Every structure is written in structure tokens, then in C-alpha cells.
């Protein structure tokens, strides 16, 4: 049956319930900060001695509600023995289907959350799409962005117009506009980030023609060989995507040295004056 129960009457049986650690309390505080009843499903409980109810599922939600000053929460009450409670806890928490990043993004888009709408806007302005589901390698096309989290980080790091300019450049370049493999997250994101670091270079009339000559596949192969060698020698190495981005920035600075100078000057003039 469903009942509204006092949070003060809900208890935790540590014989089967999880211990709340720092990560759990962080999640609880996050729920409390944006608490809405529309996101609150009934807490699953079982009656125990003393007129109390043991929480089987919903410990985080209940703690978050308490932090918000809420005294009662909706509960699904099921009479169970202790053994059945433990079995139910294992069943409920052991068969949870993991939500993918695409499912989260699709839901955020449907809810019109600002961050999701911004990703769509930045990508679509360049003729690209941030995908809401994965696809097979054969089904992927140039301009399709599957690395939602990495793309979100890119858009958080740079101005939206700058990211759009980088994507537009890639969509217009020979090779990039016809090769889906180049839009793999590990390749496209570091390349786009490197372009965003040198926006003045992208604006130069000759940049597109020069960039089309940048041997991206040769660079990727060389980065992979470098990583393999350092692994064999037990030496530290930077992630492949970082090395790829660094190689492109170095290439831009070599062929368009004015872009690096302009960036340095801009950084200096944007720093506040010392008292």
C-alpha cells in the first residue's frame, strides 16, 4: 500500500543497507539543491518493530527531503521478513539498468535544459548534430558528434561562436567533410579544441587551404607509435588526444605565428592591473 510517512519513523537497517560515504552525501546534497516532487518516486519500505519502517530503496531521496525541511514522504509499504528485506534490497539495487550519456542528453533536450539547448545550437550553427543515441561505425557520418560529455566540456571551455567556427571549418575542409572516422571523439574534439585556442588563425584567408594539407592521419599514427614506445620503456606519456591537440597547436604556431602572438597579447591585456 502507499502511505505518507514521517521521515522520523523511517530507519536504516545496517545489516543489509549500504553505508553512506562522502560520495553518497555529495549526491544527496545535489538532490536537495534541486529538489522537486516530480523527480521523487515513492520510497520502498517495510514495517519493523516499534512502529518504524525500514528503508529498502530511497535512502538518498529521503535524506535529501529531510535536508529540505520536509517531514513526510510518500512510501510504498510492503510487509516482509528481515530475510525478504535483504533479498529485496539486493534485487532492487543489483538489477538497475545503467542510463547512457545519450539517454541523459535526450532527456535534458526534451526538458529544454539550457546546457543541452546550447550544445544543439552551437553544433547546428555549423551544420553538425549532437547525437542522442549511438550508432554502428558504418552508420556514422561526418558532422555527427557522439561524445556528448567531451563536447560539453569543449563548449564550456570556449565561447560558443568560437566552437561553431571550428566545427564549420572542419565541415568545409576536404577530407573532414567526407570521412566519418575523423569525427571520432578522440580525434575531432582535440582538433576542435586546438583550433579554438587559435581563433585568429582560423580567420585568416589562407588557413583552410593550409589546414587541409595537415597530415592528420600521419600525426595520429605517429602519436600512437610514440605511446607504444613509451609503454614498452615503462615511461610516462600524455593521453593520445592531448598529444594530438598539442601537435596541431604547434603546427598552427609554426605556419601562422601571428596567431600565437595575438593570443599572448590578448591574455596579457585581459589580466587585471596590479595594485
SSE layout and pairing:
Layout: E1 2-6, E2 10-11, H1 22-33, E3 43-48, E4 52-57, H2 59-67, E5 72-77, H3 82-94, H4 101-110, H5 114-124, E6 129-130, E7 144-145, H6 148-157, H7 160-172, H8 185-197, H9 199-202, H10 207-212, H11 216-232, H12 240-255, H13 257-270
Parallel strand pairs: 2-4, 3-5, 6-7
Antiparallel strand pairs: 1-5, 3-4
Helix pairs in contact: 1-2, 4-5, 5-7, 7-8, 8-12, 11-12, 12-13
Report on this structure.
The protein has 2 domains: 2-94, Conserved hypothetical protein from pyrococcus furiosus pfu- 392566-001, ParB domain; 101-270, no CATH class. It has a 5-stranded mixed β-sheet. The chain has helices at 22-33, 59-67, 82-94, 101-110, 114-124, 148-157, 160-172, 185-197, 199-202, 207-212, 216-232, 240-255, 257-270; strands spanning 2-6, 10-11, 43-48, 52-57, 72-77, 129-130, 144-145. With 275 residues, it is of the alpha/beta class. It has 13 helices and 7 strands. The longest helix has 17 residues, at 216-232. Mean pLDDT is 90; it is low at 269-275. The protein is elongated. 54% of the residues lie in helices and 11% in strands.
Amino acid at each position: 500500500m502507499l502511505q505518507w510517512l514521517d521521515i522520523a519513523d523511517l530507519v536504516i537497517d545496517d545489516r543489509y543497507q549500504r553505508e553512506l560515504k562522502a560520495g553518497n552525501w555529495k549526491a544527496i546534497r545535489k538532490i536537495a539543491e534541486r529538489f522537486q516532487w516530480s523527480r521523487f518516486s515513492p520510497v520502498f519500505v517495510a514495517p519493523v518493530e516499534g512502529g518504524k519502517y525500514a528503508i529498502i530503496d530511497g535512502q538518498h531521496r529521503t535524506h535529501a527531503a529531510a535536508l529540505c525541511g520536509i517531514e513526510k514522504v510518500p512510501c510504498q509499504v510492503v510487509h516482509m521478513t528481515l530475510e525478504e528485506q535483504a533479498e529485496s534490497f539486493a534485487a532492487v539495487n543489483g538489477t538497475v539498468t545503467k542510463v547512457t550519456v545519450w539517454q541523459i542528453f535526450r532527456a535534458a533536450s526534451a526538458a529544454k535544459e539550457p546546457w543541452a539547448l546550447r550544445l544543439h545550437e552551437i553544433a547546428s550553427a555549423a551544420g553538425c548534430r549532437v547525437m542522442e543515441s549511438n550508432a554502428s561505425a558504418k552508420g556514422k557520418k561526418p558532422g555527427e558528434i557522439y561524445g556528448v560529455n567531451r563536447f560539453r566540456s569543449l563548449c564550456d571551455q570556449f565561447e560558443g561562436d568560437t566552437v561553431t567556427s571550428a566545427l564549420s571549418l572542419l565541415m568545409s575542409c576536404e577530407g573532414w567533410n567526407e570521412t566519418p572516422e575523423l569525427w571520432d571523439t578522440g580525434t575531432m574534439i582535440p582538433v576542435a579544441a586546438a583550433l579554438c585556442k587559435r581563433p585568429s588563425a582560423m580567420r585568416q584567408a589562407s588557413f583552410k587551404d593550409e589546414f587541409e594539407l595537415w597530415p592528420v592521419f600521419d600525426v595520429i599514427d605517429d602519436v600512437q607509435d610514440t605511446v607504444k614506445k613509451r609503454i614498452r620503456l615503462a615511461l610516462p606519456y600524455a593521453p593520445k588526444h592531448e598529444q594530438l591537440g598539442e601537435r596541431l597547436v604547434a603546427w598552427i604556431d609554426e605556419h601562422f605565428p601571428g596567431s600565437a602572438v595575438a593570443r599572448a597579447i590578448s591574455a596579457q591585456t585581459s589580466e587585471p592591473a596590479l595594485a
